[in-house]
Amino acid sequence: MIDNISELAIFNGKPKFNAQLHVGCPNIGSREQLFDRMNIILDRKWLTNYGPFVQQLEQKICEHLNVKHCIAMCNATVALEIAIRALELKGEVIIPSFTFIASAHALQWQEITPVFCDIDPQTHMIDPEIIQSMITPKTTGIMGVHLWGRPCNIDAIVKVAKKNNLRILFDAAHAFYVSYKGKMIGNFGDAEVLSFHATKFFNTFEGGAVVTNDDMLAEKIRLMKNFGFTGFDKVIYTGTNGKMSEASAAMGLTNLESIDDFISSNYSNYKLYQKELSGCPGLQLIGYNEKEKNNFHYIIIEIDEHTIGINRDDVISILHAENILARRYFYPGCHNMEPYRSYNPHAKLLLPETERLAQKVIALPTGISISSSEIEIICKVLRNVVENGREINNLLKHKQYSQIG
Ligand code: T4K
To answer: Is ligand 1 within 6 A of the CB of residue 222?
Structure first.
């Protein structure tokens, strides 16, 4: 066995890291500021129900995104559900299958059928050219997903929506602090939904928000996230509990103060990955459009099994053995998960690009807690895999055989 290969932990070498490196390790701002705010919350004994910190956070997000309304919520899944209901979506809504399951479930939860549309393999996002062919008399809307902190092809989606009189909701869970043609995400479609989950670029522990420039829609969403109350004892809509707590808002206000640091760490991580992985045949790092604002929070590579000689899942196993907990987001695609798989077992026939991409993608660790030297080591392992893919593949097969034997 050549030296580089025998070094790999999957062949009983020593793992490159003692502690696990996660994709989605939270970005956390000043602890002091957070603890000060937590003390203020405890002193004023106002813990939730649209408290002062939630109001401040909403205002600051509006300023950052230059959008009229921000309605903070307990998470993005509930924010999606409420936005869907407020927009009166019904019947069928067209969405990509290549997304986190929450995008589809937020519709299905309300008995709306998510109709899965294939993606553009270049952008990984919904292909607007295909949307038209998925529209039926039952279609009421399109939900685009700004995947990996990159905006989807908004202009083309707006065009097809206008032509067919459909509403547009964007799942912008990944796209806080990102721009499209110079305008911040948050200003497009009828509404956009942000996620502030722990694993996101900007977190409030758990959290999310609907952002919109539509006054009436914002008012309706605000009522719906608070059970439909308009005042003491008066309820005018079916509502739910989508409220963000003061503790989450305290985390949000604190993290907002460090947002430039988060971006600059993510940016240098991205540039380092780009440098270290350049010229690796069969391994492609997905780039950012640096003319726009980006949060640089997603380091996404595609593995071409035929060039490297080893498949994506084996690459993941090799990385995991080194304690690099890379993820194969968003495998296997929503259409291959329940209940969607049972509802439409043949959906994959219309989703060839989604099927292909779901076998190729790997998300790598980034964020403020990862160091340059750690990134260099991750890339060294990946280069080793690329250079020796076929040999490693043979050895892995041999290992599997001998284990079975
Ligand atoms: N739309 C899209 C496109 C989304 O990606 C998401 C969420 C949503 C909608 C819904 O947003 P929320 O309702 O969640 O606000 C994670 C997150 O839980 C989920 O928020 C996120 N997308 C998704 C992409 O990733 P899992 O099932 O992969 O989580 P888990 O527990 O495996 O954690 C991911 C990694 O992060 C692990 O390697 C561990 C690490 N981690 C996680 C947590 C919670 C930490 O290091 N610290 C932590 O506190 O879904």
So the answer is: no
**Atom of ligand 1 at shortest range from CA of 196:** 15
Angstrom distance (rounded) from CA 85 to CA 348: 28
Q: Does residue 208 line the site of ligand 1, with CB under 6 A?
A: yes
Residue 278: exposed, middle, or buried by beta-carbon count in 10 A (0-12, 13-18, 19+)?
Answer: exposed
* Domain 31-256: CATH architecture, name and number where available: 3-Layer(aba) Sandwich (3.40)
Reported as a single tens digit per residue, the pLDDT across 334-351 is 999 999 999 999 999 999
Query: Using alpha carbons only, what angle is made at residue 56 by residues 167 and 26, rounded to the nearest 5 degrees?
Result: 80
pLDDT, tens digit, 9 for 90 and up, residues 109-152: 999 999 999 999 999 999 999 999 999 999 999 999 999 999 99
Is the separation of the CB atoms in 41 and 48 below 8 Å? no
Residue pointed to by tokens 């829609």? 217
Distance 235 CA to ligand 1 centre (A): 34
State what percent of residues in the chain have pLDDT above 70.
Answer: 98
pTM over 0.85: yes
Assigned superfamily of 2-24+259-326+365-404:
Aspartate Aminotransferase, domain 1 (3.90.1150.10)
